[in-house]
Amino acid sequence: RISQDMHDDVGGILTRVSILSDVGQSQAEGPTASKQFERIGHQVRAAVVAIDEIVWATNPKDDNLPRFAEYVGRFADECFENTGVRCWQEIPTDLPKLPLRADVRHNVFLAVKEALNNVLKHSAATEVWLRLKLVDARVCVEIGDNGHGFAPETVRPGGNGLDNMKSRLAECGGAADIASLPGQGVKLRFVFPMPKSV
Fold first, then answer.
1. How far apart are CA 139 and CA 141, in angstroms?
2. What is the pLDDT of residues 127-140, one digit of tens each?
3. What are the CA-CA distances from residue 165 to residues 20, 79, 143 (Å)?
4. Using CA of residue 132, residue 62, residue 174, residue 164, what is the dihedral sign?
5. 115 vs 152, which has greater pLDDT?
6. From 39, 135, 187, 192, which residue has the greatest number of CB atoms within 10 Å?
7. Dihedral (C-alpha) 61, 65, 66, 67: value to the nearest 10 degrees?
8. Is 147 exposed, middle or buried (0-12, 13-18, 19+ CB in 10 A)?
9. What is the DSSP annotation of the chain?
């Protein structure tokens, strides 16, 4: 109920502020004022996204595999919307409604989010692939891109959030594998266990 109230009340307020900032930007005189309104709008939209993530993470109705897959797919679409990166997805529409604890789905989502943000920030990719499959009671999420890649041994500890991704999957009893070579893009594979029955 609290998460729903946050969505309805705080989310509604932030949406109205975002609209007002867009109107102010269109009516602003001078580049400085316009730039300030643009920054306000950007921050408010980021807050709306954060509220949406909190609501999703705390809503028990979303504690299952299909809802997790749906949310991850939607986030990926929105992440690359209005960018030069084409996002391809392979996510089954007939996943069994297996229970998925809130902490597990949130940790895995944050790892996926970090990976997708890295594609935008660092890869110079034009295409990204998101695949999700369930094999032998284990979920596998794969993210690959056609960017410039990197040599994993040259990345400093904590660089690009790679250690964060690995630790988040480890908390879920899973693992994160990262494969990359300069000029050959990056492939991430997140695997974590699921219960065998509802």
1. 7
2. 999 999 999 899 99
3. 37, 18, 12
4. positive
5. 115
6. 192
7. 40
8. buried
9. -HHHHIIIIIHHHHHHHHHHHHHHHHH--SHHHHHHHHHHHHHHHHHHHHHHHHHHHH-GGG-BHHHHHHHHHHHHHHHHTTSS-EEEEE--S-----B--HHHHHHHHHHHHHHHHHIIIII--SEEEEEEEEETTEEEEEEEE-S----GGGSPTTGGGHHHHHHHHHHTT-EEEEEE-TTS-EEEEEEEE--S--
Length of the chain: 198
Rounded to two decimals, the pTM is 0.78
Closest C-alpha among 110, 97, 107, 121 to residue 195: 97
Tokens standing for residue 193: 């266990």
So what's the pLDDT on residue 198?
A: 42
Enumerate residues 6+ apart whose C-beta is below 8 A from 83.
120
Handedness of CA 56, 60, 65, 66 (dihedral sign): negative
